[in-house]
Amino acid sequence: MISDDQQTSTKPVEPRDARYKNSIFTVPNVICMGRLAGSFVLFAFALMGWRYGFVGLFLALSLSDWIDGKLARWLHQRSDLGARLDSAADAVLYAALIGGALILSWDLLQHDLVWLAVGIGSYVVTSGAGLWKYGRVPSYHTYGAKLTNWLALIAGIFLILQWSVWPMRIVVIAVTLTNLESTLITLALKSWKADVLTLFHVWPTHKQDIPKSEVPAEIENDQA
């Protein structure tokens, strides 16, 4: 049987979502825009040496990522535009985090630049795969990505406050595995789709194990 989450992530846009499909100023999109703008303020805090202000704003911006996703579902305002905007806002936020960490915690981070390079490199690879195949960056929002976001929140606080570098190393491993899964999803799909929860949802062998009547039409056509 396909779970409700699987059906939600692969079926066409619901009727109540359709009227927001091309809307820019929906509630979740406005929150994403706020996170995008706030990320530049976050980096400014790092330049000014405001360590605790940086941590407080990073915490607020990270939680906004969880809030906008919930609101998009509760208000039935999901859209491909919103998914792309959310991914862009997340990328800018974590770029600001990395830049801020290099400024505020250089003494702690300077011996772990290889770890940072691995994480950034894995993101470049999965983004490059999406651009090569679809002409746009993937916005899958997988379970792995959601877990990694929470780990990154913890690691960011530990790093900026100079408590420990180990949470960052754990996050790099999680980020690399998540980006590997995203790259495989890109290879499995024939057209760009948002909100694919796991590779298991789109892998051809998984579809064969599901009764035909239960396979969402969108995935069935895509894998044909």
Description:
By secondary structure, this protein is an all-alpha fold. The chain has a single domain, classed as Up-down Bundle (Four Helix Bundle (Hemerythrin (Met), subunit A)), CATH 1.20.120. The protein contains eleven helices and no strands. α4 packs antiparallel against α8 and α7 runs parallel beside α9. The N terminus and C terminus are likely disordered.
**How do the SSEs run, as a string of H and E?**
HHHHHHHHHHH
CATH architecture: Up-down Bundle
Mean pLDDT: 83
Provide the low-confidence segments as ranges.
1-16, 208-224
What's the story with the biggest beta sheet? Answer: none
| Number of domains as seen in the coordinates | 1
Number of strands: 0
CATH topology: Four Helix Bundle (Hemerythrin (Met), subunit A)
Strand content: under 5%
Which structural class matches the secondary elements?
mainly alpha
Q: Give the class-level CATH name.
A: Mainly Alpha
Backbone CA Rg: 18 Å
- Span between N and C termini? 21 Å
Helical amount among residues, as a percent range? over 70%
Count of helix runs: 11
Give the overall shape, derived from the CA principal axes: globular
